[in-house]
From TrEMBL:
Catalytic activity: meso-2,6-diaminopimelate + H(+) = L-lysine + CO2
Originating gene: lysA
Keyword Lyase in record: yes
Cofactor(s) essential for the protein: pyridoxal 5'-phosphate
Binding locations of pyridoxal 5'-phosphate: 238, 273-276, 371
Domain Orn/DAP/Arg decarboxylase 2 N-terminal, first and last residues per copy: 35-280
Annotated function: Specifically catalyzes the decarboxylation of meso-diaminopimelate (meso-DAP) to L-lysine.
Oligomer and partners: Homodimer.
GO biological process: lysine biosynthetic process via diaminopimelate
Residues binding substrate, per UniProt: 276, 312, 316, 344, 371
Active site: 343
Keywords, alphabetical: Amino-acid biosynthesis, Decarboxylase, Lyase, Lysine biosynthesis, Pyridoxal phosphate
Protein's recorded name: Diaminopimelate decarboxylase
Length: 417
């Protein structure tokens, strides 16, 4: 995280003082660094030579400007809804470079994706395969598909974001895969391109990834021996980042390891779907302390950002570093619970943090670039925050703060005569 640093006693985001951003755009405010996003993307590219492909997972941060930056870098995209596909198209992404994941795709979504010339639909069940066949037949098209297989690997992450175990709703069980691949190969409007898996998110060790990859390569071989030749294998995303800056996923080691395994399959293009690893450490959330409340046993900093702005702490007990924007002399500070305005005890951004803060001070929540804004909501009729991108010392608004009118758009009062 070197695009943010303390200078002249306060936090700067690429030379821009955080207090200036708060002043100009208000708080709470998401701030992203263009250079950090590009740097993260380049790191993957550097260790993932062509013809292997990278599809950025749009759900991590779907702001149009960020998708545009990544499209300009030649990114493909992993989407999970027609809405995300519309974002990619609007941002200048190539539909042929898009893969479409998700367990409950509707007929309308499948039709739209096929009409747009989607690169690949990642099929999650036998029933979905039949639906795609029917929609593609109606359109007189051949649907490019991959079958998502659940490799039954424990990713050792939070249970809500582990996706590759038998008990999870995702993908086709490995034991059931062969007949469904055979069916896909035989259906007239299906163009079977590949297989895919995704075992979870915020994974901190190479082992589960390599374990899943080995199972998938074995499946590729079994399919080949049955006469089914795949052209790609998509190993998903899930690369963990260091929220606490104490542990680190050895990404290069994993990428190297999987490329070595792939040496035996020269005709297979590999794909990855990183989301968090591209944007998480490129964003912060700036928030202002409204009040301090001290009780007999607790000290609370009541801030203007809540679980509706950044849900991760409330939903996954996720830990995000929180720093004071103005550097304080007493660096260790007092123990403070940093809590938001939403009427839920679970609305907090951090418990028991050492901070020296008073009412009116600004705080920055780090590593907020992924699954931050995209998981925000209007709960408590709170407007979603603005988003700003910093590029070479200048700030650009890439999403306006919502207004009350934005929030009630589409709602109707009952007619009274
Ligand atoms: C199918 C699929 N691909 C990619 C991702 C991106 O994951 P991450 O942001 O952890 O890289 C996800 C989310 O976990 C996903 O469900
Ligand atoms: N939303 C999760 C990641 C889920 C990934 C989606 N498959 C998080 O914030 O960590």
């Amino acid at each position: 995280m070197n695009y943010i640093d303390f200078k002249q006693g306060q936090l700067h985001v690429e030379q821009v003082p955080a207090s200036q951003l708060a002043e100009q755009y208000g708080t709470p405010l998401y701030v992203y660094s263009k250079s950090q996003i590009i740097k993260n993307w380049q790191l993957f590219k550097q260790h993932w030579p062509k013809p292997h492909r990278l599809c950025y997972a749009v759900k991590a941060n779907s702001n149009l400007a960020i998708l545009q930056l990544l499209a300009e870098q030649g990114a493909g995209f992993d989407i999970v809804s027609a809405g995300e596909l519309k974002r990619v198209l609007k941002a200048g992404g190539d539909p042929a470079s898009v893969v479409f994941s998700g367990v409950a795709k509707s007929e309308d979504e499948l039709r739209f994706a096929l009409q747009q010339g989607i690169g690949c639909i990642n099929v999650e069940s036998a029933a979905e395969l039949e639906r795609i066949q029917q929609v593609a037949a109606e359109l007189s098209q051949s649907a490019p598909v991959s079958l998502r297989v659940n490799p039954d690997v424990d990713a050792k992450t939070h249970p809500y974001i582990a996706t590759g175990m038998k008990a999870n709703k995702f993908g086709i069980a490995m034991a059931d895969a062969m007949p469904i691949f055979k069916r896909a190969a035989a259906l007239p409007n299906i163009n079977l391109l590949g297989a895919d898996c995704h075992i979870g998110s915020q994974i901190m060790s190479s082992e589960p990834f390599l374990d899943a990859a080995k199972r998938m390569f074995k499946l590729v071989e079994e399919l080949a021996s049955e006469g089914i030749k795949l052209s790609h294998l998509d190993l998903g995303g899930g690369f963990g980042i260091s929220y606490e800056e104490t542990d680190r996923l050895d990404l290069e080691n994993y990428l190297k390891g999987v490329l070595e395994l792939a040496n035996n399959y020269p005709e297979l293009t590999l794909m990855l779907e990183p989301g968090r690893a591209i944007v998480a450490d490129a964003g912060i959330l700036i928030t202002r302390v409204e009040y301090i409340k001290a009780t007999d046993d607790k000290r609370f900093a009541l801030i203007d950002a809540g679980m509706n702005d950044l849900l991760r702490p409330s939903l996954y007990q996720a830990w995000h570093d929180i720093v004071a924007v103005q550097e304080t002399q007493n660096a260790r500070g007092q123990l403070v619970d940093v809590v938001g305005p939403v009427c839920e005890t679970g609305c907090f951004l951090g418990h028991a943090r050492h901070l020296t803060v008073k009412s009116g001070d600004l705080l920055a929540v780090k590593h907020a670039g992924a699954y931050g804004f995209t998981m925000s909501s209007n709960y408590n009729t709170r407007a979603k925050p603005a988003e700003v991108l910093i590029d070479q010392g200048s700030s650009y608004i890439i999403r306006e703060r919502e207004t009350f009118d934005d929030m009630v758009r589409g709602e109707r009062l009952l007619k009274r005569t």
